Amino acid sequence: MSPVKKRARSRTYDPDRTRGAVLAQFGHVRDAVRALTAEQLALPTRLGDWTVRDLVAHVGMALSAVGRLLGEPEPARQDGSLLDWPSAIGADAPAIAAHARELAERNPDLGAYLDAAERDFTAALAAHPGTRLLGTSAGALPLADYVVTRTVELVVHTDDLNAAVPGLDIPHDRQALAAATRLLADALAAKAPGGSTEVRIPPYAVVQCVEGPRHTRGTPPNVVETDPLTWVRLATGRLAWRDAVESAQVSASGQRADLGGLLPLLS
After folding, report:
1. Hey, what's the torsion of the CAs at 17, 8, 195, 86, to 10 degrees?
2. Which residues pair with 213 in a beta bridge?
3. Which DSSP symbol is given to 234?
4. Burial degree of 227 (CB within 10 A; 0-12, 13-18, 19+)
5. Rounded to whole angstroms, how far apart are CA atoms 211 and 190?
6. Residue 232 and residue 213: Cα distance in Å, rounded?
7. Cα–Cα distance measured from residue 132 to residue 140, given in angstroms and rounded to the nearest whole number
8. Nearest to residue 151, comparing CAs of 10, 11, 13, 9?
9. What is the DSSP letter of 261?
10. 90 Cβ neighbours under 8 A, 6+ residues apart
11. How many CB atoms lie within 10 A of CB 249?
12. Is 139 left (phi over 0), alpha (psi -120 to 50) or beta?
């Protein structure tokens, strides 16, 4: 029998709060979509050739993926980590894009489509314990951990929608943004372990990363600081490191404070 893969340690998340955050952020998107016109739904997005309609369909997939994975046989053991997820999802990108377009064509009433996705998601969580394993691109993960990844999907794509539709201002749920920020910050620390650089994303996360001398007291010699939404954009490739620094969206001080070679985290 092959050995179990060593998993990076992750912080814990309260399942009830995570569920509430996912539903709150999804609800913000659903409410905004109801008011979009056909012309707005046909607008391009910053995601290649995806339209707003395709993107909305993908938002529904963020929830429906839970039921789909629960419908598959349960893996025998956990062999993945929550922190593996950001670097693993790129392998699914072509299939995800094709499925989003198919769903967009098949569901002319996007409001009804999102309502159904929410109902199915809520029912799936009620029917299964958080320990139930799901076979994901990052390996077998507990359901409760996989739900945390839904906050990243929803926060990121809320921002994509706001960028695509002039005047649209879908709010970000505080708990959803917090969970997404923390997961992506921890993924950076797992990708570049060390203690020479402190990354601060107030008010949600502070992590140590990058090999080198570890500070023990006082102000660290290498400090990066930014706001949560800018961090999410950097971690997901929506914003380039150089552009963020030059526009003062990020402050970076010290010889080991350049994170450009480590970003984005999603691949």
Report:
1. -70
2. none
3. H
4. middle
5. 11
6. 27
7. 10
8. 13
9. G
10. 266, 267
11. 16
12. left
Task: Tokens 């917090």: give the residue.
Answer: 178
Distances (CA, A) of 9 to 22, 83, 135: 23, 8, 19
Summarize pLDDT for 22-73 with one digit per residue, the tens: 999 999 999 999 999 999 999 999 999 999 999 999 999 999 999 999 999 9
Tokens, residue 227: 């706001």
CB neighbours of residue 255 within 10 Å: 10
Encoding tokens for residue 158?
Answer: 């809320």
Element (H, E) at 197: strand 197-201
Q: Are 234 and 263 in contact (CB under 8 A)?
A: yes
CB neighbours of 32 closer than 8 A, spacing ≥ 6? 161, 168, 170
Instruction: Tell me how far apart the alpha carbons of residues 214 and 220 are, in angstroms, rounded to a whole number.
Output: 8
pTM, to two decimals:
0.94
Mean pLDDT value across residues 238-251? 98
CB atoms within 10 A of CB 37: 9
Going along the chain from its start, the domains and CATH numbers come out as: 15-175 (1.20.120.450), 192-262 (3.30.1050.40)
**Per-residue DSSP letter, 108:** S
Residue with tokens 């913000």: 28
